[in-house]
Amino acid sequence: MTFAADLVTELERATAGRPIPRVRALHLPPAEAAASKNGEFCALELDDGALGISYVLLDDTLQRLIDAPDRGGIIGMDALALAREFAAPPPAGAGRAEIEACDLRRTLGFAAANALSRTVMDRMGFAPPRATDSIGGIDPQAGDHVGMVGLFSPLLKQVTAAGARLTVIELNPDYAGHYEGYRVTLDAAELEGCNKVLSTSTILLNHSVDRILAHCRGAQRIVLIGPSAGCLPDPLFARGVTVVGGSWILERQGFIDALRRGESWSAFAYKFALGAADWPGPASIR
By the 8 A CB rule, do 45 and 23 touch? Predict the structure, then answer.
């Protein structure tokens, strides 16, 4: 099964016999914020107050969400039903318009899966531990070969300054080449030679996570980070991910207001780093 299908199955198990919240609102940054890091994410709000974050700058997702009448008809929808759309592939023989519509619903489904995951964690009385650094404790050392999935420009020096060899996997061919201290390639198979991997959580949304992690079986440590890494972590731990790092929202209204203004919401959330040893699992729901 795919990661998306496994996540939906895990959410079904974790919410079995419990009320399923409905979608209250979809909060979007203003279109003009798309040029900055403050315009990269949306937040889907459930009627129990849970928020789920999703990246919205793949292709023209943000503008299409802004233009969608009635937020795509998701308001009032059962959160689990919407989360199931994250795992739904495009219909066989679908044309471009149908594929784009499916991709948009999958983005909303991913946000719903993250929001429902927050519902489950709140019911558990669980909050993840705060991150102690910005690279998920990957602890680069001289002699390490670190694979970076997605070009995290602000994090490059943290890896290269330690004397580690760095290979970056990118989708954009404009970035490919050799740079001071690291190399950028389009070939994900080069992760097979890395003993540590640091990946953007966008691989969850674009459904490349299973393909990427298949190349990381030799890695001793796999860290997946990003604000949208807010889902139940069980399917990721089962695939070899050692740490999941995301954003844990502390002040819901302040977060929503900042996001909708296209401003930084860091004052209303903290970065967490969650390892398997920290996670009691949804079976602990009270």
Answer: yes
Question: How far is it, in rounded angstroms, from Cα 133 to Cα 126?
Answer: 21
User: 190-214 in b/e burial notation, b at 16+ Cβ within 10 A?
Assistant: bbeebbbbbbbbbbbbbbbbeebbe
On whether the CB atoms of residues 246 and 226 are closer than 8 A, the answer is: yes
Q: Full-prediction pTM beyond 0.70? A: yes
Given 3.40.50, 2.60.40, 3.30.390, 2.40.128, which CATH number is that of 3-124? 3.30.390
Question: Which amino acid is located at 123 in the chain?
Answer: R
Predicted confidence (pLDDT) per residue in 224-248, tens digit: 999 999 999 999 999 999 999 999 9
CB 216 within 8 A of CB 222: yes
**pLDDT tens digits, residue range 75-99?**
999 999 999 999 988 777 777 777 7
